[in-house]
Amino acid sequence: MNDPTPGFIGKSVERKEDYRFLTGNGQYTDDITQPNQSYACFLRSPHAHAKIRGIDTAKALKAPGVLAIYTGKDFENVGGLPCGWLINNLDGSPMKEPKHAVLALDKVRYVGDHVALVVADTLHAAKDAANLIDVDYEILPAVADTATADKAKEAVHDIAPGNVCYVWGCGDKAATDAAFAKAAHVTTLDIVNNRLVPNALEPRAANAVYSRADDSYTLYVSNQNPHVERLLMTAFVLGLPEHKVRVVAPDVGGGFGSKIYLYAEETALVWASRKVGRPIKWTAERSESFLSDAHGRDHVTKAELALDADGKFLALRVHTTANMGAYLSTFASCIPTILYATLLAGQYATPAIYCEVKAVFTNTAPVDAYRGAGRPEATYVVERIVETAAREMKLDPAEIRRRNFIKTFPYATPVGLTYDTGDYDATLTRAQQLADVAGFARRKEDSAKKGLLRGLGYACYIEACGLAPSNIAGALGARAGLFEAGEVRVHPTGKVTVFTGSHSHGQGHETTFAQVVADKLGIGIDDVDIQHGDTGKVVFGMGTYGSRSLAVGGTAIVKATDKIIAKGKKIAAHLLEASDADIEFSNGEFKVAGTDRKKTFAEVALTAYVPHNYPLDKLEPGLNENAFYDPTNFTYPAGSYVCEVEIDPATGVTRIDRFTAVDDFGNVVNPMIVEGQVHGGLAQGIGQALLEGCQYNEDGQLVTGTLMDYATPRADDLPTFVVETAKGTPCTHNPLGVKGCGEAGAIGSPAAVINAITDAVWHLGIQDVPMPATPHTVWKTLKSARH
To answer: What count of other Cβ atoms lies within 10 Å of the Cβ of residue 533?
Structure first.
């Protein structure tokens, strides 16, 4: 692996981090045990909505091993968990933003809400004591249904009448309505984007340590953005000096967005660690994760597409009700607005678009970003209604897309984004070739002979990654910057340590970032070490979410590396007695242009730290640089997916026979890692389409609270994927030319699957099959069509 040959970018280098994971040497938060360790258990509400009339902890406090018990009254003067994005209503007034208390004070608002924190010598002692706490509840009616929450008599929060958090709009309503008035055809579709539970392999965990020696705190936490975690906790909730709190996110076993947020558990642990005077550890059990991790999706939408007689799109009109859950999670408010409505143009040159979003509170767990975060919901709306319109107008679904594709770039959409580059026809054509669309009719006939239904569905998605720039996002309500930071530290021997504000929790940053730096500096990939996830080591960064790591974090590293090279040229010029302007750098060597005089990167590095005969009046010793990067625009990966299904009408069982994905990610640093990211995203998207559905009953009880009730995809639910990364259209505004890739599979696949299912049953008069299209759902839909 330590091949010093230049040109690491574009190579499928094996992941450097895999050895420690495969040999069981990863270190996750739960693996960390401190001296004098204590353990926490949270007493959670069994009711979706209730007043707390009293909490009796007397018996629990006397239980063996109990160190302390805290309730909402102890946190009464502590700030609430903040929301990081302000959304304004159509009339300009701010959204309703009720306080999200660390521990519930007067009311509980969802099953799993935090009622008390028990700290004990052992986990078993903490659990036993929690069972002894007596809470007197006055049960209230629950609001659990997204579609009718605004009509419920009961209010989740007194400050939000009708349970409405905000009503927000995007696009030109007048132009859209005018386009509909002259349309030759209008397609209307009612869509439910089903609620999902993230279910990362590693559950959330935290271990808080307080040091009386210097009045400081260290929090080990399974988190995707430790600096943001620290900032929100110290500045908005606990009021602690930020420089006295160190947050460490060690190895993290997956996140999918659910570990971006500041949660009550780690906040309570940090606060209590000083009170107790001992480290406190908490690790969620899977049942707790189902109840309390931020969920994803949960939209109810009416979409309308106006077309002319030739199938050209005139306008798209969308009305969505989005469930926020019981409280506003860290980025909840921007998911169904900034990251959803702005993507409703898709890959199409639709002249007018208007989207109105009503966000509602319910007595359910908070809802926030989940792999794709608004982009899957937008793609599902666009691609389902486009496919439906094609069938209604008796047009080939691929042809109607081609008639409406954006063909010239840059392209400003009617919903606020500017796409810099793309070639949508090329990815669709290639996907059709790989999927053997030409042979579908024969395969459909073969299935019919066996009494089976076969369908083929498309999805042409676009994604906006690397949310940016900060000044525009700030004007749209963001309460944080959206830059990233990187530091490149060259050691005297020429070895390199890179510190990045991005965080890896399965993406392979230790490999891809090392490839970028090794390629730039002309050194071996094993000569580059990547450090992340520790606010005590890394300059302030925003972490990993929204497929931003390489495009934003990688660019910050490139900018820091460019500074290293620039200083190296000055040092080399001194050593070679030449002008700075005459020094060239390539393949790890500084050369005097037009000569064979040169110095290696290692020689220059050593000189920087052993500055004998060194112009100290002109150059500082050392070779260490950092950089911040705030993008000027999103990156816009796009692709075309083709799904082919076979359905047994007797049982409703749907089998994905083949699935083809062709993606344009711009330049690709490591094709193997990118393909793995796409595979994972496809599995999650197919899981949403066929299997996964988080359900609450009318009383607000979570009825899919275990893996016995909530179906996640297994290997035999998935086909052999045909995945290809197109030659691509490089991003025009970052030096690597890269676009995001981590969420694409989850964005495009649900629509492709459902489009294939509806293609198989369209002749029966079935326009839609809801997600998840379980065997029972498909069978029931088919049965209703027969009667």
So the answer is: 29
